[in-house]
Amino acid sequence: MSEFIPFAVPEISNEEINEVVDTLRSGWITTGPKVKQFESDFQSFIGSGVEAIAVNSATAGLHLALEALGVGEGDEVIIPSLTFTATAEVARYLGADIRVVDIDSDTLNIDIEAIRGAITLKTKVIMPVHYAGLSCNMDEILSLAEEFDLKVVEDAAHALPTTYRGDMIGALKSDIAVFSFYANKTMTTGEGGMVVTRNSDLAKRMKIMRLHGIDRDAFDRFQSKKPAWYYEVVAPGFKYNMTDIAAAMGIHQLKKLPGFLDRRQYLAKRYFDSLVDLPLTLPMDDMDGGSHSWHLFVIRVQDNSPVNRDELIQILSDQGIGSSVHYVPLHRQPYWRDKYQLTIDMFPITDKAYQAMLSIPLYTAMSDEQQDRVIQVLREALT
Ligand SMILES: *Cc1c(COP(=O)(O)O)cnc(C)c1O
Fold first, then answer.
1. pTM value?
2. Tens-place pLDDT, residues 298-349
3. Of residues 34, 124, 151, 185, which has the active-site annotation?
4. What is the pLDDT of residues 66-116, one digit of tens each?
5. Which of 38, 124, 145, 375 is deepest in the core (most CB within 10 A)?
């Protein structure tokens, strides 16, 4: 049998390896000059004068974002059911509740009217997820937020780089956006994340809470005669800082990101061209002047297909091809289902999509020949 084709593989080469080795030999391996450089490079990449704050995961970043916005007990955060549990759990860290809503069947992104229907006097934040790397309708979400005086935190874990009507995700008028550098994302630091905001008060709070609630500026600016060992703790903060070892990878992954995007777009186009006549619903590309990051290529098996989703995953697996499902929706997860009495009939669109969907291999190091094998197995299974 030919070699196994996984669903995702990171592309790491000598640049990252040499920079990590340089960090290991430098004597400084935790947060230091490499993190500073990575944050500065990331700010330039997103543009629009954002501040970038490196953290050890996107989950940590989402937690810092909600904390900085003052989310706490009695508050509600609106999120889609079709997401990873991290989007939801951070609200619970702070004692807040989530309101889970359905998605749009074409884009698989959060449904705007469902958001409107879920807004209560307790609602504080809308957390859209740019599913698979396709931007949500941010104009509508931002105008809802303005109408009801809500905050917007974008879970941008899939959206690097994604543009919405020509603007980078991260540079829009939301309060905070959070990117992930988990191993299977569009660029990686092993584990890691980046928080961006244009609000300097929020940035300051998140920087303090990222590292034990230590306020560096308090003594840097006003008490500069204090010795270097002195620090002040102003809150019970977290331990969410990124290491220089991770940032060493990030610096080079970020440089390669435009090339990575080209390769992902090329592979996505090849999938579209060769799967179009099969009984599949192919993912939606951006039709609104924006661009898709192609973090995931999510196909849905149609009702008239000769095999169902589970059978198709088994056929792929038997042929040495990895795939995955993004995600088992929140309304089917025991904790969220029981905590908020979520039932399948409350999420008809998400549930139907979930039962039909699978993510097929898409990664920058995938060769045309490997992709041809995936296409061939799909064609044989579905015709
Ligand atoms: C990956 C992911 C996260 C979490 O990212 P980490 O960096 O692993 O914490 C959050 N939300 C979504 C939608 C994700 O895909």
1. 0.97
2. 999 999 999 999 999 999 999 999 999 999 999 999 999 999 999 999 999 9
3. 185
4. 999 999 999 999 999 999 999 999 999 999 999 999 999 999 999 999 999
5. 38
Kindly report the CA angle at 24 between 22 and 30, in degrees rounded to 5? 115
159 pLDDT higher than 90: yes
CA of 87 to the centre of ligand 1 (A): 7
d(CA 94, CA 213): 16
pLDDT band at 357 (very low <50, low <70, confident <90, very high): very high
Burial class (CB in 10 A: 0-12, 13-18, 19+), 63: buried
Q: What is the Cα–Cα distance from 205 to 235, expressed in whole angstroms?
A: 10
Indicate whether residue 59 lines ligand 1 (CB < 6 A).
Answer: yes
Position in ligand 1 atom list of the atom nearest CA 191: 7
| Count of CB atoms situated within 10 Å of the CB of 228 | 6
In the chain, what are the domains? 14-254 (3.40.640.10), 258-382 (3.90.1150.10)
Degrees, nearest 5: CA angle 150-172-235: 60
Count of alpha carbons within 13 angstroms of residue 97, beta-carbon side: 13
Q: What's the one-letter identity of residue 198?
A: R
Query: Does residue 352 have an active-site annotation?
Result: no
